[in-house]
Amino acid sequence: MSKSESIEWVAIDDIVLGTNPRTVKPTKDRINEYARSIALYGILVPLIAEKQNGRYHLQAGYTRLAALAQLKNDKALTALAQLNSVDLDRVPVRIYKGDDKGRLMLPIIENNFHDVMNEVDVANQLRALLDAGEDVKILEDFFGKPKFALLLSVLALPAEVQDLIKADRLKASTAVKFAKEIPEPAKLLKALNKATVKVEELYRSGRRKNKRITEGVLKGKQTPMKVVNDTAAYLKTNKLEGAELLLSFLHGLQSGMDAERIMEALVNGEHIEAPPVKKRGRRKREVVEA
Questions:
Q1: Which of 226, 247, 275, 280 gives the lowest tally of CB atoms within 10 Å of its CB?
Q2: In this structure, how many other beta carbons lie within 10 angstroms of the beta carbon of residue 207?
Q3: Residue 1: predicted pLDDT
């Protein structure tokens, strides 16, 4: 924050919502986490707004405002906030007094490094910065040359491909790689649409845990470990001659054993058990500071 900027406590009714460059809105769970955090500790990180004609035009802090609204609609959280002397009608706001280029950087700084802004949104914000005259070297230093080059490549992708990235169906780096290998937009979209259908089918059948398109799906390739796992699963349900020895070998690979350990076990006639199945799922997140 520059010396000319300050922090004020601002009535919520005086805040004007501007344009949020984020395509993906915060989830209900994330807002609830913020709401509980605010009820316990208040808003610790000020919102950012530009003051114009007595109103405060919001530049960053949309999730915090949404969480505060959620808190005020929850009687239990409201009581908790009042117990902790949290102000529910006013919020701390950092008054932004920079130029247009600095204003365009705010959403990137606030959101991108918290993983709540996808690469397409960041790329569009980057284009706005370049159009506003921001120095390329400054942006390269900020993002790093590889990320900066990736974002420029994302801008060149067809809109339909960008939509897949925004929907978290395709990683930006993977999309750029596909575009280099299949430079004709019509052929690229046809391949991606076909892969999308395949992913949906695999997801519904339970054979895939997410709906993201990968190189393996697009090109019909399988990773070595996928081949190992599928072969082991087949041998467990089909009685084939010599299957026990091969199954022990595959279990060794699944367990991460090196060649020497696997061969030693096989020579000694030991049966290598299948590794325990890892439980999937996200770890419970801690309460975040607002």
A1: 280
A2: 9
A3: 47
Hey, how many other C-beta atoms are within 10 angstroms of the C-beta on 41?
14
pLDDT in tens, 216-269: 777 765 566 666 777 777 777 776 767 788 888 888 888 888 888 888 888 888
Res. 80 pLDDT band, cuts 50 70 90:
very high
Which DSSP state fits 279? P
Q: What six digits make up the tokens of 89? A: 């009608």
Please state the pTM of the whole predicted model. 0.56
Q: How far apart are CA 122 and CA 37, in angstroms?
A: 27
**CATH 3.90.1530.10 in the chain, residues?**
1-98
Task: Report the residue count for the chain.
Answer: 290
Q: Does domain 1-98 have CATH number 3.90.1530.10?
A: yes
At residue 13, the 3 state secondary structure works out as: helix
Of residues 5 and 115, more confidence is placed in 5
Residue showing tokens 């914000």: 125
Cα(125)–Cα(104) distance, rounded to whole angstroms? 7
Owner of token pair 């005086």: 14
